[in-house]
Amino acid sequence: MTVSIVLGRGRDGADVPLDLTELLATRLLVQGNSGSGKSHLLRRLLEQTASLVQQAIIDPEGDFVTLAEKYGHLVIDAAEQTEATLRAAGERARIHRASVILNLESVDAEQQLRAAGSFLNGLFEAPREHWYPVLVVVDEAQLFAPVAGGDTSDEARRLSLGAMTNLMCRGRKRGLAGIIATQRLAKLAKNVAAEASNFLMGRTFLDIDMARAADLLGMERRAAEAFRDLGRGQFMALGPALSRRPLLVSIGAVETASHATGPQLTPFEPAAAEEKRDLIRDLILEPVETFAPRPRERRAPPPDLLAQLDAFASEQRPPPAREAVSAGEADPATLWRLIADVAAEPGADYRPAATLFQDFQLRARIEGLGRDVLDMTRFRMLLATVRSGIGEERAGSEEWRAAEAIAARLPEDVQGLALLLARAALDGLACPDDEALARAYATHSPGRARRQLAYLEEQQVIVLREDGAARRVAFVGLGWRTA
């Protein structure tokens, strides 16, 4: 299934879409000098996807905290937390599916590296059952994955660089989709930048950065000077989630704005030279007042961040365009149709269940269903039921519920295989062949799938009889047999 957002417009004025489903699997690199519109681009992307996918934002300048006012992100101030709490916060953010902004504005460079590294490691190390898709946006990525040492300690730099490398190199299987933005490609570690498959290249002037950008986009070196002519908010796009050929895109409008503003001209009122001379002379001749140091204010204790994350699910969220349907109110026919659509996707038989669950959740959100409409366990069982071919009407019968109860006691990887055999035995059909068993077990190896029949027999779920090419299966306790 393809879920797209509109990133901006092309040269011809047509909408330029960004495939969110593809982006989750292929990552994104944004490059542009200061003032090229990187923050505007990231804000557009975050606003358009806020209701579709969980977000985690590493914000070194406090530019994105305003998203919390409209979209309900939880803002984490790094100055009020320790490395241990930030690591735990990253893990709990995934568990509770909370969109969070790590605000690093009020800490120094050393603490920025430590805070970002600890938080990213928490996201990365979340338990497998909580590997839901997350867009992880890192602004000014050259600070957290530098190509060379700077004023910070080696320990902090290794912590941050290791976390960024994990995000871009190993994060995909854990559902983490890295989106990194940098002012200079030459200052960004190559093993971090090289893992991105999608690129948005903005205005840049240095030859080394233009040459690298041209190489990434597959452009000729002589065409690299075109990056100097890009306007603010204009980017060259390339990648499976954007375009198969370099495409100029002008980023669309945003609904929120940063608290920070750029320098603006202020009317200048010239004064007479005599007035300036008198003012400066008086200032020199006047005695300098000495000020006593202001007593240091006692800061309030930091808020309990982990308690905030634990309470996230019960907080009142901003109402969506239409009220989401909860688990108890969902129409079973709608759930069946959505899962059947997921199962019918090309190659779905061999994809991990967690990936298919992400696809289902995107479809469910589009239908107006809530996040809790199905948990992972129930989704696996319904998916296996749909794949067995039993049919929607018979899936609610008492006899099929008995088969599901047997399958629920088995490991998750063999539940689909057990229900496929149960359906064949229930209707007195021939035992599924090796190819069908392999698809049910999500493997291309028929031998590996056949070995699971012996395992099911060891668990006293089936009785297996094989006579040459003939194979018969009977379900223990149900009296069902294949032909």
TrEMBL record:
Q: What is this protein called?
A: GMP reductase
Q: Which InterPro entries match?
A: ATPase_Atu1862_pred, HerA-like, HerA_central, P-loop_NTPase
Give the source's domain of life in one word. Bacteria
Every Helicase HerA central domain range? 11-111
One matching Pfam family: DUF87
